[in-house]
Design a protein that fits this description.
Elements lengths: L1 E4 L10 E4 L9 E11 L1 H7 L16 E9 L11 E5 L8 E5 L3 E3 L13 H14 L7 E5 L4 H12 L3 E6 L2 H10 L3 E4 L5 H7 L6 E4 L3 H10 L5 E4 L12 H7 L2 E4 L7 H20 L7 E6 L3 H9 L6 E5 L4
Parallel strand pairs: 8-9, 8-11, 9-10, 11-12, 12-13, 14-15
Antiparallel strand pairs: 1-2, 3-4, 3-6, 3-15, 4-5, 5-7
Bound molecules: NADP nicotinamide-adenine-dinucleotide phosphate.
């Protein structure tokens, strides 16, 4: 098979398409003929040498894919060869064949194109596990999602609206702002021109849950803007890892700060998240209330150009890589 690896960390030119043997499914694993892979910001960090695969994971890039089941390992039930599926992976999606633990594989929701399904798993699982399982967002509450135009943000807006919450987002420009509004965001804040704390306070809209992808740079502001009993959930560190926190402010609000990462979790935890996501988000997708937001697709050979789109932050939603099976 053809697959994308990074022999030496670096810029987009560090991505190399190489030949590798097809991975064989072990017990409990599903082999998938990959139709498309989703690109995640974490892949850019891995390419630059800042985010190594967890122990035991392949060095082939890619945390999510869609495709067709091509073989089943011992003990796998619930899937047949030929099923159209999407998978959450610890690596290996930028390839023509991948294996995944069966608990991290799900049938493509009805009505979703097989290529587009490559952009579903990572964002749907991240949003459901953090906004709902950790953040406990309730109907009538307010979610603030930073980076509303990102792959994660476009899913967070749709899921939170479907749950009956109000949604505020931050974005860096008018194009992303417009898409966020179309997806149902109630308040869109251009963080390059406005202070999101001031805007939310002026609108009397203190968030009960903040889904944060910035980290240190926004910590103080996020705690400041949280509602009483608010939950700040940090999932990205684009603005750094270290900052001071005013525990007095947290205490006075009876607020909490959590931080999670999906990739390094044990398979049983990932399987529980996939199961909860399929149970709750897949019906929203099948009802037409939530859809994968696909910005663009590139063939596997143009993986460097695909990474450049995320590098430039010119994507609204997901960027995908397709294999020749597409
Ligand atoms: N912990 C986990 O399990 C997990 C899983 C998946 C993703 N993530 C994280 O979630 C984030 C989004 O991932 P993705 O793959 O969806 O990436 P993406 O599509 O590349 O989005 C990154 C976004 O960050 C926004 N951004 C940059 N600076 C900002 C700022 N100061 N304020 C608000 N937004 C800002 C950009 O928006 P503008 O262009 O509008 O500035 C862009 O939309 C990444 O940080 C990623 O590491 C975490």
């Amino acid at each position: 098979m053809r697959a994308v690896v990074v022999p030496e960390p670096g810029g987009v030119d560090a991505l190399k398409v190489v030949d590798r043997p097809d991975p064989e499914p072990g017990p409990g694993e599903v082999q998938i003929a990959v139709r498309a892979a989703g690109i995640n910001r974490a892949d850019l960090l891995q390419r630059q040498g800042f985010y190594n695969p967890p122990p035991g994971a392949t060095d082939i890039l890619g945390l999510e894919c869609s495709g067709v089941v091509s073989a089943l390992g011992d003990g796998v039930t619930g899937f047949d060869v030929g099923d159209e599926v999407a998978a959450l992976l610890s690596g290996g999606a930028y390839a023509e064949t991948v294996v995944a633990p069966a608990g991290q594989v799900a049938r493509v929701p009805a009505g979703v194109d097989l290529v587009d399904a490559a952009g579903l798993m990572e964002v749907a699982c991240t949003v459901w596990s953090n906004v709902v399982m950790v953040g406990r967002l309730q109907p009538g509450e307010t979610l603030l999602a930073h980076g509303g135009g990102s792959g994660i943000g476009t899913m967070a807006i749709q899921v939170a609206k479907e749950l009956g919450a109000r949604v505020a987002v931050t974005v860096g420009g008018p194009e992303k702002a417009e898409v966020c509004r179309q997806l149902g965001a109630d308040l869109v804040i251009n963080y390059k021109e406005q202070d999101f704390v001031e805007v939310l306070k002026d609108a009397d809209l203190r968030p009960d849950v903040v889904l944060d992808i910035i980290g240190a740079k926004y910590l103080e502001k996020n705690v400041d803007v949280l509602a009483t009993n608010g939950r700040l959930v940090v999932i990205g560190l684009q603005g750094g890892t270290k900052a001071e926190i005013d525990l007095g402010a947290l205490l006075a609000k009876r607020a909490s700060v959590s931080a999670t990462a999906l990739r390094a979790r044990p398979p049983a935890e990932k399987a529980a998240i996939v199961a909860a996501t399929v149970e709750n988000v897949w019906p929203m997708i099948e009802a037409g209330a939530v859809r994968p937001m696909i910005h663009t697709t590139f063939p596997l050979d143009e993986v460097g150009a695909a990474h450049q789109v995320l590098e430039d932050s010119s994507n609204v939603g997901k960027v995908l890589l397709t294999t020749s099976a597409s």
